[in-house]
Specification:
binds adenosine-5'-diphosphate; alpha/beta; three-stranded mixed β-sheet; Rossmann fold; eight-stranded mixed β-sheet; 351 residues
Protein backbone atom coordinates (compact mmCIF):
# COMPACT_ATOMS: atom_id res chain seq x y z
CA UNK A 1 0.00 0.00 0.00
CA UNK A 2 1.36 3.43 -0.93
CA UNK A 3 2.41 5.14 2.31
CA UNK A 4 1.06 8.57 1.43
CA UNK A 5 -2.28 7.15 0.35
CA UNK A 6 -2.45 4.97 3.44
CA UNK A 7 -1.98 8.04 5.57
CA UNK A 8 -4.75 9.85 3.76
CA UNK A 9 -7.10 6.87 4.11
CA UNK A 10 -6.32 6.59 7.81
CA UNK A 11 -8.06 9.94 8.14
CA UNK A 12 -11.41 8.34 7.25
CA UNK A 13 -13.24 6.82 10.17
CA UNK A 14 -15.85 4.13 9.63
CA UNK A 15 -18.95 5.19 11.57
CA UNK A 16 -19.65 1.65 12.80
CA UNK A 17 -16.21 0.41 13.81
CA UNK A 18 -15.22 3.95 14.89
CA UNK A 19 -11.78 3.13 13.56
CA UNK A 20 -10.01 4.31 10.48
CA UNK A 21 -10.87 2.37 7.34
CA UNK A 22 -7.32 1.02 6.96
CA UNK A 23 -7.17 -0.68 10.35
CA UNK A 24 -10.81 -1.75 10.00
CA UNK A 25 -9.74 -3.72 6.93
CA UNK A 26 -11.80 -1.95 4.28
CA UNK A 27 -8.83 -1.07 2.07
CA UNK A 28 -7.56 -3.82 -0.19
CA UNK A 29 -5.18 -1.86 -2.26
CA UNK A 30 -3.99 1.75 -2.61
CA UNK A 31 -1.38 2.31 -5.28
CA UNK A 32 0.07 5.11 -7.35
CA UNK A 33 1.37 4.47 -10.84
CA UNK A 34 4.47 6.13 -12.25
CA UNK A 35 2.28 8.59 -14.14
CA UNK A 36 0.70 9.60 -10.81
CA UNK A 37 -2.58 7.79 -11.43
CA UNK A 38 -4.21 6.35 -8.35
CA UNK A 39 -5.97 3.02 -7.94
CA UNK A 40 -7.80 2.18 -4.76
CA UNK A 41 -9.79 -0.95 -4.06
CA UNK A 42 -12.08 -1.01 -1.07
CA UNK A 43 -13.55 -4.22 0.25
CA UNK A 44 -17.04 -4.40 1.64
CA UNK A 45 -19.38 -7.29 2.19
CA UNK A 46 -21.97 -5.60 -0.01
CA UNK A 47 -21.08 -2.96 -2.58
CA UNK A 48 -24.48 -1.38 -2.21
CA UNK A 49 -24.20 -0.96 1.53
CA UNK A 50 -24.86 2.78 2.14
CA UNK A 51 -21.73 3.03 4.33
CA UNK A 52 -19.65 1.56 1.52
CA UNK A 53 -20.98 4.11 -0.95
CA UNK A 54 -20.45 6.93 1.50
CA UNK A 55 -16.88 5.92 2.21
CA UNK A 56 -16.16 5.52 -1.50
CA UNK A 57 -17.41 9.07 -2.09
CA UNK A 58 -15.31 10.37 0.81
CA UNK A 59 -12.21 8.67 -0.62
CA UNK A 60 -12.91 10.22 -4.02
CA UNK A 61 -13.38 13.65 -2.46
CA UNK A 62 -10.13 13.43 -0.50
CA UNK A 63 -8.22 12.28 -3.57
CA UNK A 64 -9.64 15.11 -5.67
CA UNK A 65 -8.69 17.61 -2.96
CA UNK A 66 -5.24 16.22 -2.41
CA UNK A 67 -4.27 15.21 -5.94
CA UNK A 68 -6.33 17.47 -8.22
CA UNK A 69 -4.07 16.70 -11.17
CA UNK A 70 -4.13 12.92 -10.93
CA UNK A 71 -6.66 10.52 -12.31
CA UNK A 72 -8.06 8.32 -9.58
CA UNK A 73 -10.10 5.15 -9.68
CA UNK A 74 -11.87 3.88 -6.61
CA UNK A 75 -13.64 0.55 -6.83
CA UNK A 76 -15.44 -1.65 -4.35
CA UNK A 77 -14.79 -5.37 -4.23
CA UNK A 78 -17.36 -7.53 -2.52
CA UNK A 79 -15.39 -9.31 0.18
CA UNK A 80 -15.34 -9.51 3.94
CA UNK A 81 -13.21 -6.79 5.53
CA UNK A 82 -9.88 -7.93 6.92
CA UNK A 83 -9.26 -5.93 10.09
CA UNK A 84 -5.61 -5.38 10.89
CA UNK A 85 -4.68 -6.57 14.30
CA UNK A 86 -2.63 -3.90 15.91
CA UNK A 87 -1.97 -4.91 19.47
CA UNK A 88 -1.24 -1.42 20.51
CA UNK A 89 0.75 -0.82 23.64
CA UNK A 90 0.16 2.72 24.72
CA UNK A 91 1.35 4.95 27.52
CA UNK A 92 -1.62 7.29 27.10
CA UNK A 93 -4.13 5.34 29.18
CA UNK A 94 -3.71 7.54 32.28
CA UNK A 95 -4.18 10.82 30.43
CA UNK A 96 -7.54 12.32 31.25
CA UNK A 97 -7.83 14.96 28.53
CA UNK A 98 -5.93 15.78 25.40
CA UNK A 99 -6.22 19.32 24.11
CA UNK A 100 -4.96 20.19 20.63
CA UNK A 101 -3.60 23.70 20.04
CA UNK A 102 -3.88 24.70 16.41
CA UNK A 103 -3.44 27.73 14.17
CA UNK A 104 -3.99 28.56 10.52
CA UNK A 105 -0.50 29.90 10.00
CA UNK A 106 2.89 29.86 11.70
CA UNK A 107 4.15 32.77 13.75
CA UNK A 108 0.84 33.72 15.38
CA UNK A 109 1.94 32.50 18.83
CA UNK A 110 0.53 28.97 18.90
CA UNK A 111 3.56 27.56 20.73
CA UNK A 112 3.69 30.51 23.11
CA UNK A 113 0.02 30.03 23.97
CA UNK A 114 0.56 26.28 24.47
CA UNK A 115 3.47 26.88 26.87
CA UNK A 116 1.71 29.59 28.89
CA UNK A 117 -1.56 27.68 29.05
CA UNK A 118 0.37 24.65 30.33
CA UNK A 119 1.94 26.71 33.11
CA UNK A 120 -1.43 28.28 34.01
CA UNK A 121 -3.03 24.81 34.26
CA UNK A 122 -0.10 23.61 36.37
CA UNK A 123 -0.64 26.60 38.70
CA UNK A 124 -4.22 25.42 39.04
CA UNK A 125 -2.83 22.19 40.50
CA UNK A 126 -3.27 19.96 37.47
CA UNK A 127 -0.76 17.42 36.19
CA UNK A 128 0.17 18.67 32.77
CA UNK A 129 2.15 17.37 29.80
CA UNK A 130 3.00 18.85 26.42
CA UNK A 131 3.54 17.00 23.18
CA UNK A 132 5.28 19.26 20.70
CA UNK A 133 4.19 17.84 17.36
CA UNK A 134 5.08 20.89 15.29
CA UNK A 135 7.56 19.22 12.96
CA UNK A 136 8.08 22.45 11.01
CA UNK A 137 9.14 24.51 13.99
CA UNK A 138 9.33 22.59 17.25
CA UNK A 139 9.94 25.22 19.92
CA UNK A 140 8.64 23.88 23.24
CA UNK A 141 12.10 22.59 24.15
CA UNK A 142 13.42 26.16 23.89
CA UNK A 143 10.41 27.70 25.63
CA UNK A 144 11.00 25.44 28.63
CA UNK A 145 14.79 25.71 28.58
CA UNK A 146 15.43 22.04 27.85
CA UNK A 147 16.91 22.27 24.35
CA UNK A 148 19.84 20.02 25.11
CA UNK A 149 17.70 17.27 26.60
CA UNK A 150 18.38 13.83 25.16
CA UNK A 151 15.48 11.53 25.99
CA UNK A 152 16.46 8.31 27.72
CA UNK A 153 14.82 5.03 26.85
CA UNK A 154 13.88 2.46 29.48
CA UNK A 155 12.70 -1.10 29.21
CA UNK A 156 10.26 -2.74 31.59
CA UNK A 157 10.27 -6.43 32.54
CA UNK A 158 7.96 -7.32 29.67
CA UNK A 159 10.44 -5.79 27.23
CA UNK A 160 8.33 -2.70 26.42
CA UNK A 161 10.40 0.38 25.70
CA UNK A 162 9.57 3.77 27.14
CA UNK A 163 10.88 7.21 26.37
CA UNK A 164 11.40 9.48 29.37
CA UNK A 165 10.00 12.99 28.87
CA UNK A 166 11.83 16.16 29.92
CA UNK A 167 10.48 17.96 33.00
CA UNK A 168 10.39 21.69 33.47
CA UNK A 169 8.32 23.75 35.93
CA UNK A 170 6.52 20.56 36.88
CA UNK A 171 5.42 19.92 33.29
CA UNK A 172 6.29 16.79 31.31
CA UNK A 173 7.49 17.61 27.87
CA UNK A 174 8.11 15.50 24.80
CA UNK A 175 9.08 17.25 21.61
CA UNK A 176 9.84 16.12 18.11
CA UNK A 177 12.54 18.80 18.47
CA UNK A 178 14.53 16.43 20.71
CA UNK A 179 15.03 14.23 17.68
CA UNK A 180 15.40 16.53 14.68
CA UNK A 181 17.48 19.52 13.74
CA UNK A 182 15.39 22.48 12.50
CA UNK A 183 17.04 22.16 9.09
CA UNK A 184 15.80 18.58 8.79
CA UNK A 185 12.14 19.52 9.07
CA UNK A 186 11.41 19.29 5.36
CA UNK A 187 12.67 15.74 5.22
CA UNK A 188 10.23 14.83 7.92
CA UNK A 189 7.13 15.31 5.90
CA UNK A 190 4.76 12.41 5.51
CA UNK A 191 5.43 8.93 6.74
CA UNK A 192 8.59 9.48 8.73
CA UNK A 193 7.15 12.23 10.89
CA UNK A 194 3.96 10.27 11.38
CA UNK A 195 5.88 7.22 12.55
CA UNK A 196 8.06 9.27 14.88
CA UNK A 197 4.98 10.95 16.37
CA UNK A 198 3.28 7.60 16.76
CA UNK A 199 6.22 6.52 18.90
CA UNK A 200 6.31 9.74 20.90
CA UNK A 201 2.60 9.49 21.64
CA UNK A 202 2.47 5.85 22.66
CA UNK A 203 5.89 5.28 24.23
CA UNK A 204 6.50 8.41 26.26
CA UNK A 205 6.21 7.69 29.95
CA UNK A 206 3.42 10.24 30.49
CA UNK A 207 2.19 8.77 33.74
CA UNK A 208 -0.98 10.22 35.18
CA UNK A 209 -1.90 13.50 33.51
CA UNK A 210 -4.95 15.69 33.82
CA UNK A 211 -4.13 17.52 30.60
CA UNK A 212 -1.89 16.76 27.66
CA UNK A 213 -1.54 19.78 25.38
CA UNK A 214 -0.56 18.99 21.80
CA UNK A 215 1.20 21.76 19.91
CA UNK A 216 0.16 20.93 16.33
CA UNK A 217 1.92 22.10 13.18
CA UNK A 218 0.22 25.15 11.61
CA UNK A 219 -2.48 24.59 9.01
CA UNK A 220 -4.21 21.32 8.24
CA UNK A 221 -2.64 18.21 6.84
CA UNK A 222 -1.58 14.61 7.22
CA UNK A 223 0.09 15.14 10.58
CA UNK A 224 -3.17 16.50 11.95
CA UNK A 225 -5.20 13.61 10.63
CA UNK A 226 -2.77 11.11 12.00
CA UNK A 227 -2.67 12.70 15.47
CA UNK A 228 -6.45 12.92 15.50
CA UNK A 229 -6.42 9.23 14.73
CA UNK A 230 -3.86 8.25 17.34
CA UNK A 231 -5.08 10.26 20.29
CA UNK A 232 -8.51 10.75 21.69
CA UNK A 233 -8.61 14.54 21.56
CA UNK A 234 -11.15 16.11 23.90
CA UNK A 235 -11.08 19.57 22.38
CA UNK A 236 -9.17 22.04 20.26
CA UNK A 237 -7.99 25.58 20.94
CA UNK A 238 -7.43 27.82 17.93
CA UNK A 239 -4.81 30.55 18.15
CA UNK A 240 -4.87 33.53 15.85
CA UNK A 241 -3.70 37.11 15.55
CA UNK A 242 -6.41 39.72 14.81
CA UNK A 243 -5.51 40.10 11.16
CA UNK A 244 -5.34 36.36 10.55
CA UNK A 245 -8.53 35.34 12.24
CA UNK A 246 -11.03 35.44 9.41
CA UNK A 247 -8.75 34.14 6.73
CA UNK A 248 -9.28 30.83 5.04
CA UNK A 249 -6.57 28.99 7.01
CA UNK A 250 -8.24 29.53 10.35
CA UNK A 251 -11.67 28.71 9.00
CA UNK A 252 -10.28 25.53 7.43
CA UNK A 253 -8.71 24.58 10.76
CA UNK A 254 -12.00 24.99 12.59
CA UNK A 255 -13.78 23.01 9.88
CA UNK A 256 -11.24 20.20 10.15
CA UNK A 257 -12.09 19.66 13.81
CA UNK A 258 -15.80 20.06 13.25
CA UNK A 259 -15.88 17.67 10.32
CA UNK A 260 -18.46 14.95 10.92
CA UNK A 261 -15.86 12.20 10.83
CA UNK A 262 -13.46 14.03 13.14
CA UNK A 263 -15.99 15.60 15.47
CA UNK A 264 -13.68 17.26 17.97
CA UNK A 265 -15.24 20.14 19.92
CA UNK A 266 -13.60 23.50 19.26
CA UNK A 267 -13.16 24.93 22.75
CA UNK A 268 -12.58 28.43 21.46
CA UNK A 269 -10.24 30.98 19.95
CA UNK A 270 -7.36 32.78 21.65
CA UNK A 271 -6.64 36.11 20.02
CA UNK A 272 -2.93 36.65 20.44
CA UNK A 273 -1.10 39.96 19.93
CA UNK A 274 -4.50 41.62 20.25
CA UNK A 275 -3.06 45.06 21.10
CA UNK A 276 0.04 46.81 22.34
CA UNK A 277 0.36 48.97 25.46
CA UNK A 278 3.58 50.91 25.98
CA UNK A 279 5.04 50.83 29.53
CA UNK A 280 4.92 54.63 29.81
CA UNK A 281 1.25 54.86 28.72
CA UNK A 282 -0.36 51.96 30.60
CA UNK A 283 -3.91 53.09 29.77
CA UNK A 284 -3.37 53.23 26.04
CA UNK A 285 -4.10 50.31 23.78
CA UNK A 286 -2.85 50.30 20.22
CA UNK A 287 -4.63 47.84 17.97
CA UNK A 288 -1.71 47.35 15.63
CA UNK A 289 -3.18 44.36 13.81
CA UNK A 290 -6.81 45.50 13.81
CA UNK A 291 -9.48 45.37 16.46
CA UNK A 292 -12.13 42.89 17.50
CA UNK A 293 -11.55 40.46 14.64
CA UNK A 294 -11.50 37.35 16.79
CA UNK A 295 -14.61 38.35 18.72
CA UNK A 296 -16.54 38.89 15.49
CA UNK A 297 -15.29 35.66 13.97
CA UNK A 298 -16.00 33.69 17.12
CA UNK A 299 -19.56 35.02 17.27
CA UNK A 300 -20.20 34.28 13.61
CA UNK A 301 -18.77 30.75 13.88
CA UNK A 302 -20.49 29.99 17.19
CA UNK A 303 -17.19 29.52 19.03
CA UNK A 304 -16.09 30.94 22.37
CA UNK A 305 -13.52 33.67 22.58
CA UNK A 306 -11.26 32.20 25.27
CA UNK A 307 -9.23 35.34 25.69
CA UNK A 308 -7.31 38.19 24.16
CA UNK A 309 -3.62 38.42 24.96
CA UNK A 310 -1.79 41.65 24.11
CA UNK A 311 1.77 42.00 22.91
CA UNK A 312 3.88 41.99 26.06
CA UNK A 313 7.64 42.08 26.07
CA UNK A 314 7.96 39.55 28.89
CA UNK A 315 6.06 36.97 26.81
CA UNK A 316 8.66 37.18 24.09
CA UNK A 317 11.54 37.32 26.61
CA UNK A 318 10.15 34.37 28.54
CA UNK A 319 10.12 32.25 25.38
CA UNK A 320 13.70 33.22 24.69
CA UNK A 321 14.84 32.55 28.26
CA UNK A 322 13.20 29.16 28.59
CA UNK A 323 10.49 30.05 31.13
CA UNK A 324 7.01 31.04 30.01
CA UNK A 325 5.99 34.50 31.26
CA UNK A 326 2.92 33.10 33.07
CA UNK A 327 5.44 31.82 35.62
CA UNK A 328 6.87 35.23 36.53
CA UNK A 329 4.79 38.12 35.16
CA UNK A 330 1.51 38.57 37.06
CA UNK A 331 -0.08 40.47 34.16
CA UNK A 332 0.51 37.54 31.83
CA UNK A 333 -0.54 35.05 34.48
CA UNK A 334 -3.91 36.79 34.77
CA UNK A 335 -4.63 36.51 31.06
CA UNK A 336 -3.69 32.86 31.01
CA UNK A 337 -5.43 31.95 34.26
CA UNK A 338 -8.68 33.15 32.67
CA UNK A 339 -8.00 31.21 29.49
CA UNK A 340 -7.17 28.07 31.50
CA UNK A 341 -10.43 28.39 33.47
CA UNK A 342 -12.44 28.66 30.26
CA UNK A 343 -10.67 25.69 28.71
CA UNK A 344 -11.40 23.55 31.79
CA UNK A 345 -15.01 24.75 31.84
CA UNK A 346 -15.56 24.11 28.13
CA UNK A 347 -14.18 20.60 28.57
CA UNK A 348 -16.92 20.00 31.10
CA UNK A 349 -14.99 20.63 34.32
CA UNK A 350 -12.46 18.50 36.15
CA UNK A 351 -11.77 14.92 35.15
P1 LIG B 1 3.89 29.86 16.35
O1 LIG B 1 4.00 28.74 17.30
O2 LIG B 1 2.47 30.21 16.00
O3 LIG B 1 4.75 29.72 15.14
P2 LIG B 1 5.37 31.34 18.36
O4 LIG B 1 4.64 30.93 19.58
O5 LIG B 1 6.69 30.71 18.08
O6 LIG B 1 4.44 31.20 17.08
O7 LIG B 1 5.52 32.92 18.42
C1 LIG B 1 6.20 33.67 17.44
C2 LIG B 1 7.02 34.79 18.11
O8 LIG B 1 6.13 35.76 18.68
C3 LIG B 1 7.89 34.30 19.26
O9 LIG B 1 9.10 35.02 19.23
C4 LIG B 1 7.12 34.67 20.51
O10 LIG B 1 7.96 34.92 21.61
C5 LIG B 1 6.42 35.94 20.07
N1 LIG B 1 5.12 36.16 20.74
C6 LIG B 1 4.04 35.35 20.69
N2 LIG B 1 3.01 35.88 21.38
C7 LIG B 1 3.45 37.06 21.89
C8 LIG B 1 2.84 38.10 22.70
N3 LIG B 1 1.58 38.01 23.11
N4 LIG B 1 3.62 39.16 23.05
C9 LIG B 1 4.90 39.24 22.62
N5 LIG B 1 5.52 38.34 21.86
C10 LIG B 1 4.80 37.24 21.48
Amino acid sequence: MNEELELLLRGIIHPETEQNIVDSGFVDRADRGEDGSIAITLRFQKARDPFAQKIKRRVEELLAERYPESSAMVIIREAAPKPRRREQQTTTTDICRVVAIASGKGGVGKSTVTANLAVALRHRGYNVGILDADIYGPSQNKMFGVEGYVPDAEKDEAGNEYIIPAQSLGIKLMSIGFFIKPTDALMWRGGMAVNALHQLIHQTRWGKLDYLLVDLPPGTGDIHLSIINELKISGAVIVSTPQQVAVADVVRGVEMFRHAQVNIPVLGVVENMAWFTPEELPDNKYYIFGRGGARRYAEAAGIDLLGEVPIIQSIMEGSEDGRPATGFDPRVEEYYANIADKVVENLGGDC
